[in-house]
Amino acid sequence: AVAAALMTLYDMAKSIDREMVISDIQLDTKTGGSRGNYVRSDGAAAPSE
User: What pTM does this model have?
Assistant: First the structure.
C-alpha cells in the first residue's frame, strides 16, 4: 500500500521534477495477522509509543 501511495505522489509531482527518486521502502515492524508480529532483524529501531 505504501508503494502504491508513493507512485501516486510521484505521478502528481513529476511535472516539477521528472528525475526524482523514491527509494528505501521497507517493513520495520508489524503486529497481528496470521503470521504474528514481526520486527526487522537488522537493528532497526522499534517505534516509540
Answer: 0.51
